[in-house]
Amino acid sequence: MNTRVIKWIIFNLQFNVFGVLVKLEEQQIEETKIELSPLLIPCSLEDIVIINAPIITNNTQYYLNKPNGDVKKLNIHHTCSSSLHNIIAKNRTKEVINASNFKITNENSLNSMNVFDNEVSVACDEFMIGPLGVEDHGNWVLSAFEKDEKWIEVFQVISIEIVENILASPPMQYHIKGDNFELSFPYSIDNLESCELIKPNGSRDRYYNRTRKKCKSCGYIVPNVTENDEGQWTIVGVGNIVYKTSSNLIIERKHYYEFYCAFFYQTYL
Predict the structure, then answer these.
(1) Has residue 8 got a pLDDT over 60?
(2) Alpha-carbon distance 38 to 46, whole Å?
(3) Contact assessment for residue 102 and residue 46, using Cβ atoms and an 8 Å cutoff
């Protein structure tokens, strides 16, 4: 899904900018860089993400870069052993072992805290991002600096992908063969950049149209539906975060459809 990919190449081009913002205690610039494998973390609004930092030495200086460019020095050391302790960097200039681990929680007791404003009780080799807001969606960069004759930087791009699942209206649609099937988000979404319609497995080559009247809510029309179109249809919209909604399409025989319409009219109208 091209619209959902958070492009790593941007960081390969711009990472030197982050380096300028970070001021080391001895005002030194790194001479060697080691990149750990990127980490993608799908999560939801208000989630709290706790991540292990790469283990180098107790004298390593750690910095966290937010998507908006803000930088914070992290108070990380390795005198303890956490339950998720699994990121290791060894023989820094030759070999890096990267087995990133993280955990996601959504505890109400932590909802008022943020890693940039408060210290939270986490293991000494962990750091926290959250509770997540819209502004936290995107690429973070964790940088670890150490000096072994020359400065070495170990860094990792951490993509926080915030997904909001929106209930479709209605979540299930009944149609007869030949009908038009319409699907959209139930309301307009601000700053919407792209939309994608994910079809059921049996409708991979299915033709469909975008609706101009529902452009800001990712509206789609699937014309002349058949039994092959049955199943779950999903819309993925990308804006400030990722939005999803799904509706299940059921193709009814005509007399069942007429019965359903009469029942719906008598019950709800």
Answers:
(1) no
(2) 23
(3) no
Give the CA distances from residue 97 to residues 71, 89, 148, in Å, rounded to whole numbers and listed in that order.
25, 5, 19
Residue with tokens 């063969």: 177
Using alpha carbons only, how large is the chain's radius of gyration in Å? 24
Burial of 178 (0-12, 13-18, 19+ CB in 10 A): exposed
List, for residues 195-232, the tens digit of each pLDDT value: 999 999 766 678 888 887 788 999 999 999 999 899 99
CATH assignment of 2-162, given 2.60.40.10, 3.30.1130.10, 1.20.120.290, 3.40.50.300?
2.60.40.10
